[in-house]
């Protein structure tokens, strides 16, 4: 009983400390966030000197639903209804332009024409140009591309 209470107390302490540490960064950024919130949604993102923006489109085709894991400007791993498309603007700093910025989409499985499971077909486009695919679902590696 005593070990259970000590374990519970340690867990509660850890949660409180982690929650408290996360809240300080938000309060420090309040003034900066306030400026961004007042800008109209149609305003294009401002680029820093030397920064480049690229439009990245991730696509997974097929029928039904499957799990999709992706990384572009944001990350996600959720069940998605197919066909699925996500378009985001990726901002490359000078460092990203030098070493590259990896974008990827890893689709789950779908039923093939022969009734067997295969990976869903995926495509990555950067600035409207197709730069990667998984050979119609024949590759098990998904789709990835390094933007430079």
Any descriptors?
148 residues, alpha+beta, Immunoglobulin-like, 2 domains, four-stranded antiparallel beta sheet, 3 helices, elongated
Sequence-ordered SSE layout with sheet pairings:
Layout lengths: L1 H27 L1 H9 L13 E9 L4 E7 L3 E7 L2 E9 L1 H6 L1 E7 L1 E3 L5 E3 L2 E5 L2 E5 L9 E5 L1
Antiparallel strand pairs: 1-4, 1-8, 2-3, 2-5, 5-10, 6-7, 8-9
Q: What structural category do the secondary elements indicate?
A: alpha+beta
Q: Outline the low-pLDDT stretches.
A: 7-44
Query: What is the mean pLDDT?
Result: 79
Proportion in helices: 25-40%
Topology order in helix (H) and strand (E) letters = HHEEEEHEEEEEE
N-to-C terminal Cα separation, in Å? 58 Å
Overall geometry:
elongated
Question: How is the main sheet built?
Answer: 4 strands, antiparallel
Q: Remind me, CATH topology of the largest domain?
A: Immunoglobulin-like
Number of strands: 10
Q: What integer value in Å does the Rg equal? A: 21 Å
Number of separate structural domains: 2
């Amino acid at each position: 009983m005593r070990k259970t209470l000590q374990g519970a107390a340690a867990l509660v302490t850890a949660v409180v400390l982690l929650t408290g540490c996360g809240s300080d960064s938000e309060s420090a950024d309040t003034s900066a966030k306030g400026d961004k919130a007042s800008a109209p949604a149609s305003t294009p993102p401002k680029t820093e000197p030397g920064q480049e923006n690229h439009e990245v489109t991730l696509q997974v085709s097929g029928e039904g639903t499957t799990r999709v894991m992706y990384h572009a400007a944001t990350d996600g791993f959720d069940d998605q209804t197919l066909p699925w498309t996500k378009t985001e603007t990726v901002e490359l700093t000078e460092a990203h332009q030098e070493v590259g910025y990896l974008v990827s989409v890893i689709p789950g499985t779908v039923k093939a024409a022969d009734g067997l499971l295969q990976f869903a077909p995926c495509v990555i486009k950067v600035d409207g140009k197709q730069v990667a695919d998984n050979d119609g679902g024949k590759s098990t590696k998904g789709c990835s591309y390094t933007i430079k």
